[in-house]
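Action item from last meeting closed. Structure (251 res):
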């Protein structure tokens, strides 16, 4: 297994967002986390990626505890993510947004690679070349010099994926990557996620688009009110009474 949580918990004041949650992600798996809004899915990502400290419990990545590590350390160990609300730097070009992603893998800092200090020129060139490869991988090679704000929303999501890929993660966390995408874009995304896994990267996916989830996931975990209510193969989840209830109860 690549990731394992035991009894992770997160409370916000009196609210229990994630409650004693145990789960495992296996190497090279595409695992989905589904559940109604407010179930705690994004909070789980925030705990894994170190954006929020857990209130309790333990998170292990590749056999080592990452529970108390800062987010930049977790990123350098090989976990990267995208955000439910796309987070791009509008004052930087498309390619620079990907180059930022390379930061944990280069010896010089962000500023020197972007400002091109003379002795960092060679490294900067290499970073740019790799960033371009990731842009091409997600189909944005021709938009490298534009402002991310010029990109339609679906392409902004792809840019975020390119940036996350540029950190060369072992585990990629995708938070609602199909949200706001049309059918064709979602099909393209589905192919892309499968290709990323084909490169040996493990995927943990939070998503509401059930066609996407059921189509590509090896395993699905269902959260409701911070607790796991089901876990299994897509077919098992589709037939699970408690899952159906959790979703119907929402309406
Ligand atoms: N930073 C925060 N501060 C306070 N409450 C939060 C915070 N983040 C999430 N919550 C609350 O925790 C619960 C779970 O939220 P979230 O993890 O975003 O759910 P999901 O991603 O499944 O929709 C919600 O009730 C939400 O309002
Ligand atoms: Mg969320």
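Sequence:
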């Amino acid at each position: 297994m690549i990731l394992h949580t035991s009894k992770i918990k997160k409370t916000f004041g009196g609210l229990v967002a994630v409650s004693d949650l145990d789960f495992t992600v296996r190497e090279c798996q595409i695992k989905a986390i589904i559940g109604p809004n407010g179930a705690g899915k994004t909070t789980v990502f925030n705990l894994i990626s170190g954006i929020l400290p857990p209130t309790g419990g333990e998170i292990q990545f590749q056999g080592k505890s990452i529970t108390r590590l800062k987010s930049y350390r977790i990123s350098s160990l090989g976990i990267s993510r995208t955000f439910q609300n796309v987070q791009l730097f509008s004052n930087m070009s498309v390619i620079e947004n990907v180059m930022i992603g390379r930061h944990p893998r280069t010896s010089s800092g962000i500023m020197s690679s972007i400002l091109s200090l003379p002795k960092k020129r060679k490294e900067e060139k290499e970073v740019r070349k790799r960033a371009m490869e990731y842009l091409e991988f997600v189909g944005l090679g021709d938009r490298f010099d534009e402002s991310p704000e010029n990109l339609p929303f679906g392409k902004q999501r792809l840019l975020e994926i390119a940036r996350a890929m540029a950190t060369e993660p072992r585990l990629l966390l995708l938070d609602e990557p199909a949200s706001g995408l049309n059918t064709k874009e979602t099909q393209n995304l589905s192919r892309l996620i499968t290709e990323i896994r084909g490169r040996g990267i493990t995927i943990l996916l939070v998503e509401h688009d059930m066609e996407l989830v059921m189509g590509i996931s090896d395993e699905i975990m269902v959260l409701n009110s911070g607790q796991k209510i089901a876990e299994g193969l897509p077919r098992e989840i589709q037939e699970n009474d408690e899952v159906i209830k959790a979703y119907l109860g929402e309406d």
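Note appended to the action item: Residues 90-168 form one domain.
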